[in-house]
Amino acid sequence: MDFENSLKLYDTMAKVPLAGVVFEAYSLNYGIVAVKIFQKDKFDQREFDIGIEIIKKLNNQFILKQMGYTNWDKFPFLVMEYANMKTLDIIAKQPQIFLPSCTLRALMKQILEGMRAFHSSGLVHRDIKCDNILLHSPPGSGRVHVKISDFGFAKKVDLNNQLTYLAGTLPFMSPEQFLQNPVITQKVDIYALGITFYKLITHKYPINEQR
User: Fold this and answer.
1) pTM to 2 decimals?
2) Which SUPFAM superfamilies does the annotation name (predicted)?
């Protein structure tokens, strides 16, 4: 699809360390979308290709849809579904915000349903955290849906050649990832989900992340 000629970039939504910049944009084909433009010197096309085609085929309302990717003026970029609210991190960072238990249960259920679909495709996300779970309210619905996002570290599980290098965000990484020769499985995502839920409820980490 000719994304280069069908997109108009608007405001910067976020700057992603070690990745690039995310813009709000308008697409002739999809309407309002998000566009992530990667830093060329920190973009590995082979690594990116491993999971993106599988993710594009996932049809789950709690996983951020990926419309496609290409190069624009020699910069690799990804066109994604637009989420019109902030991330879970906005809630987790504000101790004065205490969500009702029914709201917490609903959000957790959505995240778990999204991760079940993600894992059923054979992928490991490897960077589950509050900041990578977006919030979206469909216009006129009065409801909020989560959108699991940021698949830069996502990998296909290969039982014959399991992942053995470090990736993720430190406070959300499971202990086995720090072993000399770690074996990375979908269990690292489950651990990260536990940390995510804990931080969402208590507004702090279960351990001192500075140590």
Assistant:
1) 0.83
2) Protein kinase-like (PK-like)
